[in-house]
Structure formats: C-alpha cells, structure tokens
C-alpha cells in the first residue's frame, strides 16, 4: 500500500514552470513585469508599451513602438458576424459570456487561426489585444443603445476604447487613468486564468481556444469577478457611516470581503496602493455617488487592515479599489470583469507563447481514495 502523497490543494505553493515575464513578490508586496517594477511602469510607461514589453520581454525603440501601435490600430475593427452576435446578446446575457463567445468566434475569420508557429501566434496576440478591447467596448455601447461604434485608427488603444464605448472623444484625464488601470492588470504570473490558458495551449490546441479558456476562468468571483463583487458590497453598505457595522457583521458571519486576500500577496498588493492614490483624489469628487463609494472603500480598507490585515495576512488586492475609479470614469459595473480581460490579454498571450517554446503537456495527478474491484450488482438487484 503506497502512502497517500502530500496534496497541494489549489496547487498552492507548486511551481510548474519558469519565466522571466513576471515576478510577484508576495512577502514584500512587489510586482515586476520583465524586471521593471510596477511603480516604475505606472509612472513612466503606458499600456501599449507594456503589451510590447510583455510579448517581447524588452522595451521597444520609438520606431518599434510606433509600428506596434499602428498594428494594434489596424486590427481593431470587428468581423460582421461578431458584431451581430454582440448586438443579439449584449442586452440579455452575462457580458463575460458574450466576450467568451465572441473571442471564440474570432478564430473563424483569423487567417492565421490554423498556423501555430510563433510568428503567427504573435500576430494573433496583437489581434486579440486589439479586438478584445473592441468587443468589450461594443458590448457596453450596444447595451447602452448606441450600437457598434467603429474604431478610430487615429486614436491610441485606450482613447479608442473609451471612444467606442461612449461614442464620443474621451477627456485626456480619463484616458490616462484608464491606461493606468489597464497597465496594472496587464500581467500577474501564473494566476488562475493564465494557467488555464497555458493548460489548453499545452495540448497543442490553439491561441483562440487558450484565450477562451482563460476568459472563462477569469469570470469567477474568486478571480476577475472580485471587483464587481466589491462594488456591489459598497453599494449595499450605502453610506460611509454604515461601513464599520457592515464589515464587522460580515466578518463575524465568516463572510469573505471581496477585494481582500490573495494567494500570493501576504501583504499590501502594490497595485492596490497605486489605485488607492487615485481614490484619495476622488474623496472630494463633485459626483455624490463617486464620493460616497470612495469614502466607503477607504473606511472599509482602514477597518480591514486594522482587523485582519496584520494578524491574518489579508490585505486589499487590486480589485478592491477599482469600482469607485471605474464609476468615476462612467463605466458600468457589468463591464468591470470584461475590462479586466481586455487588460490581461497581453499577459495571457505572452505566457502561452513562452510556454509553447518548451511545451510539455500539463497533466497533474489525482490521488484515488476510493475502493477497488467493487462487485457490479445488476440494476434489478440494487
Ligand atoms: C483570493 C483568495 C481566493 C485567496 O485565498 P486562498 O489562498 O485560497 O485562501 P482561502 O480562501 O483558503 O483563505 C484563507 C483564510 O483567510 C480567510 N480569508 C481569505 N480571504 C478573505 C477575505 N477576502 N475576507 C475575509 N476572510 C478572508 C478565509 O476565510 C480563510 O480563513 P480560515 O482559515 O479561517 O478558513 C481569497 O483571499 C478570497 O476569496 N478573496 C476574495 C476574492 C478576491 O478578492 N479575489 C481576487 C483576488 S486578486
């Protein structure tokens, strides 16, 4: 009889590959994309440059970035059949389901779909980065009754996203803030959605299938859906002065507070620190809803940090503060997780391409704890 192996529930603490794309230092609360700290990138770079960085593991020259931006711009328009599906489903379906189905459909019109070489996968990555943002913006625009707004190739990635979403040229300040949000969500090592994309790719399936798997994985409230759940909680709390009672009761009832806790960070998530700075600026917002949500978020954060931060290692993660920031940008809650997907796509693609260079089918073991050689009893005798 073989002893039961040690089982790592949720694969906690298990390394499955190595990579130079991302370092998450959960003890010291540091995050690096290809060696650059997240603070350096948020302060100096932008989402388009970070996409290039993640896919190529180096920063582009000015001319390389210019070519890359033009490629993104030229790939933004959506195939007619995808627009039709969005127009049919966006008002009545879950937005992540719309995104998952639309991305799956993109394969039918991608001339590189069946070519799994690395140059082809790079081209598909650029298309996916570009088109997923268009799908999310189109979903929001159709839901708001504006229909599909065609992309404007003269605009940058984030400016165009807001343009396609709202049908009007966005304010520079809004473009800057959303760019930072996209940048902060662009990559995070072997998180659940990236891992599921890699698992699919490791069977030598294809890029669109791998990204579709990743989108399905991101949907859950323990992963990408946490920012929606956190904002819902803030809305339920209603007023800043109700925050303490609400959180105390939730903790006493052993409820999880969405937007807190992390498998890797056992300290403050550095991305949350950056978003919190923006929130502090919103405390005096002229918009009552934004001001209210901001003050609830800051009160909840203070209480949680005091109550279980240091003692239990449960700190705010990237998803906690996003809700009030997106609300300030006029973005509805149902688009939060799709926007997370539109931000994380460069990270997914970078890891999939890298893993395929030395591919090995991912197939872990499950320890069988049942009985063997059971007697089969015919159905009329059971
Ligand atoms: C992210 C998450 C799934 C990681 O958790 P994990 O490593 O699997 O750890 P567990 O869920 O087993 O949590 C460990 C303990 O901390 C507690 N805990 C974890 N997150 C908590 C939270 N957000 N609020 C209150 N308690 C929490 C658990 O109840 C558990 O307590 P117990 O040991 O007394 O049962 C978890 O922290 C969580 O569900 N957070 C809320 C969802 C979220 O914000 N997800 C986005 C992540 S970026």
Written account of the structure:
- The protein has 382 residues and is mainly alpha-helical.
- The protein has 16 helices and three strands.
- Strands 1-2-3 form a three-stranded antiparallel β-sheet.
- A hairpin with a 2-residue loop joins strand 2 and strand 3.
- Helix 2 (47-56) runs parallel beside helix 16 (336-357), helix 4 runs antiparallel to helix 5 (95-106) and helix 5 (95-106) runs antiparallel to helix 10.
- The longest helix is centred in the middle third of the chain and has 26 residues, at 118-143.
- The structure holds coenzyme A (COA).
- Residues 10, 222-223, 226, 256-263, 312, 314, 317-319 line the site of coenzyme A (COA).
